[in-house]
Amino acid sequence: MYEDKLKKLLNEYKTGELDENELFRLLKLMPFEDLGWVSLDHHRAIRSGYPEVIYCAGKTPEQVAIIAEKLISAGNSSIMATRADISHFEAVQKLVPDAVYHGAARMITVCRSVSEAPALPVCVVTAGTSDIPVAEEAAVTAEQLGNRIERVYDVGVAGIHRLFARLDTISSAGVVIVIAGMEGALASVIGGLVDIPIIAVPTSVGYGANFNGLTPLLAMLNSCAAGVGVVNIDNGFGAGWMASRINRMVLR
């Protein structure tokens, strides 16, 4: 049992068999809660700064609700669930009444404490309105992690004058997330205009030769603009998380 292991570690610390650094190292490796169909990592927040995030696709509403309730019961003040539909949210809300559903982002969040926000916002930019679901996943993720968000939507290269009109907002951010489908050119364009870290997100938006996001993924990976990093296709969550890590480094 976890309680027995914890008592043993604390006793060894009290008797001097473990120093403080070793105790903390061992605590970071435990515990997890085995429910038979899922093993919940209750110490994820200690190791990575945020509790385990629930990926809802492939899980029943009841499974998502149980996981959310267990995470809250373990003392976590904030949780996120991604790729959630309304049935997932309705099940979660029965057990965690203050849960919030973000329809465009397809996310469920609970936020019972607010951390200090970095001075600069994270700017989320899309090429088109069809990219907004992925953009909202990135924005909600970064916001849940304590960042202020600036949204600049529908400024793709087909009407590039729209982008130039918003450059002041984009260039005042700490990190820029650029989300584009089709040929994925927007990340390279912005990379040549600002001196800020850029996280590019290819989306599966586009016609046949877009290959469900493979075309913009390869375009972004082959960008000639410096300072552009790339996450996986439609991975707004990963982009929002990485943007927060970068943006919060100034607080350390």
Descriptive report:
This protein has 252 residues and is α/β, with parallel strands linked by helices. Helix content is 39%, strand content 17%. The protein has a five-stranded parallel sheet with strand order 8-7-9-10-11. Strands 3-4-6-5 form a four-stranded mixed sheet, sandwiched between helices. A two-stranded antiparallel ribbon has the order 1-2. β1 and β2 form a beta hairpin. The model has no long low-confidence stretch (mean pLDDT 90).
Structural key phrases:
single chain; 252 residues; alpha/beta; five-stranded parallel β-sheet; four-stranded mixed β-sheet; 11 helices; 39% helix; 17% strand
State the gist of this model.
The protein is an alpha/beta fold.
Q: What gyration radius follows from the Cα positions, in whole Å? A: 21 Å
* Largest sheet, strands/sense/barrel: 5 strands, parallel
Helix vs. strand class: alpha/beta
Helix content: 25-40%
The average pLDDT score comes to 90
Beta fraction of the residues? Answer: 15-25%
Summarize the helix and strand pattern as letters.
HHEEHEHEHEEEHEHHEHEHEH
Contiguous uncertain segments of 5+ residues: none
N-to-C CA distance? 36 Å
Number of helices: 11
What would you call the shape? globular
Trace the largest sheet across and list its strands: 8-7-9-10-11
Number of strands: 11
